[in-house]
Amino acid sequence: MSSGLAAWIFIVLGACSYESALAAAPANDNCLNAFIIPGNAAFPFYCPVVDVASATSGDELLLTTLLCSPTDPPSVSRGIWYKYRPAIGGLYTVTTCAPGTTVDDTVLGIFTSTGGCGGPFTGVDCNDDALGICNYLSSSTVFLLADTDYYIVAWLYGTATPASGKSKVQILVTRENPPPNDTCLSALPIFLNTPVQGSTVLASNDYRLPGTNAFAGVGQTRTAMGMGRDVVYYFTAPEAGNYSFKASAYRDDAQFDLMLYVGGFCAPGVGPQMLTNVIAAANRNHVGTAEEVACVPMSNNQVMYVYVDDTNFNRGSTFILEVSHCLRETEPNDTPALASRFSSGVEGSIFPAGDTDYYSVGTFPAGSRLFAMVVGDAANTPPDFQMRVTTFDDTLEYDDNDNDPLFGQTSPNIAGTPLPGAPVFIRVNGAGQLEPYRLYAVVQPPTNSAAIEVEPNDTLASAQANPNNYYVYGRLAGPAPSTDQDIYGFTAADGDLLFVSLDGDPTRDGTAVNAQLELLDEFGNSLILVNDGRASSDSSRTTNNLSAGNPDFPGEALVYRCAEGNYFVRVSIGTTSSGLAGAGDYLLSISRNCLANASGLNTAPSLPSLSVTPALFEGGTASLSGRVFDPDLGDAVSVAIRWGDGKSNVLNFGGAGLNTFSIDHQYLDDTSVPTGMNRFTIDVTATDSHGESGSSNAWVVVSNAPPKLLDVVVTSPVFVGSNAVLSGSIFDAGVLDFFVLAVNWGDGSLVQNFNYPAGTTSFNENHVYAIGNTNLTIRLDLRDDDAGMDSRIVPLFVKQQAAAAHFLGLVPSGNGHVLLQLQATALATYAIETTANFDGWVEIGTATADATGALSFEDVSAPLTSRFYRAVVKQ
After folding, report:
1. Residue 840 vs residues 869, 872, 874: alpha-carbon distances, Å
2. What is the DSSP letter of 67?
3. pTM (2 decimals)?
4. What is the residue-averaged pLDDT of the chain?
5. How buried is 45 (Cβ within 10 angstroms: 0-12 exposed, 13-18 middle, 19+ buried)?
6. Which residue in 464, 92, 65 sits closest to 315, CA to CA?
């Protein structure tokens, strides 16, 4: 700008307004009464808070066409004016992202003018959405000359009346200083799950990349050199694993092209220098707000330098940098049967073109509600992702582009899908080859478990806060557009990942509400605001189709990494609502770390039902069945079963939700205590991935199975003085039982006890009888160690040992027969043999002596010739 010409900068801020009872417009409602920012102000300088509810919309509206877009200027209203004449030239940031600002959306313009308020005006900078931590508020970083007048105009975006409590604007002016981490020698530390806000404004161009293979993956521009300003951080891995580095909330402008890369050591040379130690780099999202270097393997305590750079040399930008653990999809996962296990923030890639990724949600009780979001802001342009909630063969809900720009405007979120009580999956696909994306999801209980909104809850002081605030059924009261706003409070710990999702048609009856969702800090400052324009429902359904584009319902969603403190979620009607969608019911889910509660703490799994075979005999098999439920999506669960007899089993389930199990167990013994029965306690403990557990138990009564004597026999015949052999088999279903066999031999001798160990299946015992020619009864009593018993009775006749028989006479008969008469052992049997010449004996029959020992035998085949006889004892 030439000397002697006064330069005016106007900043215009636009936002929604509301009908105010105040008739007077703000003092700085026009250029002539612009608020004067002191030229020698101490920075940061906070301008007074201005209520713009009664501000007018005058000729300054023409400036948006002049400065912001001649063809498509933003819709603005209620501009307020500031004037600044810097005492020192330099780089300054002017922003509406200040503590006193309560409006949601602004537009900011900076101008010079050769004729003061009379113009003509020359545009210096225009900003609509700063994004990042400022959301839809505005921020301009520009070089201002000393002793030059600049005019700043701040408008509300749109022409609607601002809602009650959301009509104030504050301007913050800061003089920029070079960042302290301009080179790796002064790199700043960054820690896991702890986002930092940084800036490349006034940084030097110290580092460049040659053509390098570090640009791996799809959608990369491998010729990116890093010609812009750069700053450096360093990260020390707390443990071995894979880590992702993401820069976001960068300036969305055609002159800006963020690039991000990581290297293993500091190259301390004078810049700009070519880095040859780069491990991985990202330059996918041209003229976008985010880049991510995903899943870099690191060892414990390894140091990684992180470079935030730009392919163009521009004035630099603010950004947010975060390091997180990388949890990557498991390929192949292109069908429900092959679905990857879901993890909070799981990272995926659509590669090759046409790839489809399925993630297993699990089985949840019928009526449970699923909230899910794909964040695709760091993917290669255009990052057009699609998401579906499916069963094995049906699409339950679909979405294409319900996100806001901060999370990838063409990325989807689905809020409140009712689940059928069967296995459910999340399906992600996209147009072409796209990476990376992150998937967040949570399953909440059926709607009747949600807390009900309690009015009034429209201020921080009256914010609804109770244990059920993780899940709320509320209503923005009519008439449309509703001026109602509902605020819910909760706390968070350092590093918590907050996922907030709002279902705009919870009854799924086509009565959609186009709500605005906002995250506030403890002072009520807006941290993130999302307000997608989707305002209608498509309840049509195509069955047996995993690629259906319906049903589709409106939703809003955001994710945010928290520092410890108090937070609020505000639900209201934003500037994009119209008609009946400007009021109605909603279902709000607030989850920390994708856990189904607002506390952010893991929920232990539970065992809602166990059943077992009530009674059986030892050796029998008990059947245990049950269900284990873990509401925390992404958890794996193991079930340890201790059967009460010293034995155990472990069952592993890869997903959360409701898992059923059934397992058999054989009880080999009823008990070690001889009671005949025992009640065993079956202890079941379910443990999740976080080490938390829930327990339950069941009981089974195991009775003793008495032993059995089978196939009992005794040696026959038995003679006095010889061994009588008693043998048989033993069967006992209780294979751990041991036995005592008591034998009463029946001859008056003492009962004998024989001990057999467990596993004995047969016995063989001897006994010698002293008295013969006697009918006896042997009694066997078999007892196991649990007092079970079986008995057998075995009859036995003990014979006297036979002696040689004495012939008393031979009496021939007239018919040629010979009658032999002998004196023998009573009841003994003898073989009668004959010979003619003693060359050999031939048995001609047998005979048994009577009780007196008398024995007779008639030889009916006696020839007329002579022969000899003998009687031989027959055993």
Report:
1. 12, 14, 18
2. H
3. 0.79
4. 90
5. middle
6. 92
